[in-house]
Amino acid sequence: MSRARVCLTVDFDGVSSWIHSFDEADSPTNLSRGLFGVDVGAPRLLDLFDEHGVETTWFVPGHTIDSFPEAVDEVWTAGHDIQHHGWSHTRPGTYPDAAAERDDIERGIESIESLTGRAPSGYRSPSWDFSANTLSLLEEFDFEWDSSQMGREFRPYRLRTGWQAPADAPYDRGSETDLVEVPVSWQRDDFPAFAFNRERGYANETEIFETWESQFEWMYRNVDDGVYVLTMHPQIMGYGHRLERLNALVESMAAHSDVEFTTVDDVATTG
């Protein structure tokens, strides 16, 4: 049995995040950042994963599948798992009603089925956002797990329904559902760390990678059968200097003989 499991995950947003989340459909420069991820970043990540012989999980909006089918097919053909990330990269909390969110989820399922021949078992919400309707919609469409929330650090848990958060009364956790949550963290996501921000400027990239490694090492020492989820975006991680650092991070993790690289679906279904 492995001491720890590592899930390398990729949000293959393409241009959809700029169109649907950031309202940048008329910005050729920002759209080109997404195109870099499709044309350059994704192939580079696939080469790195192939070099290490690891299977990874790619959360792909249907918009990316429909816009760049050959690029997404390369991910699937290389043996990586493809799971749901909306059709559009629209934050669930911004939908006007449940029907609009349902239509987007259903359309995303159809795009994945057209590529892979099977329905997705897992979901990651755009921008890690849920609406009041998201959980019930995931149950309606028979999803088995989610990877968008942050109620634990390195352990899967069950999502809850019927919770209440009134401002003038105690918080009510609600009751557990059958949906497994494989938690994420903004602390292990390349987009907030590295995406250029005019107000912040550039991040200290060496420090970020060192933090990711120290988080893994803490988990390895302190959490039996811990699950470490790293979230990457081809348009962010796909630059040469970052790939070198990512390669070193993967090598450091793989140096532990009892660490297993696996998919989020495997974690969710095997416990």
From TrEMBL:
Residues covered by the NodB homology domain: 16-271
Domain of life where this protein originates: Archaea
Record InterPro entries: Glyco_hydro/deAcase_b/a-brl, NODB_dom, PgdA-like
Signal peptide, first to last residue: none
Pfam families for this protein: Polysacc_deac_1
Ranges that cross the membrane: none
Protein name from the UniProt record: Polysaccharide deacetylase
Top-level taxonomy: Archaea, Methanobacteriati, Methanobacteriota, Stenosarchaea group, Halobacteria
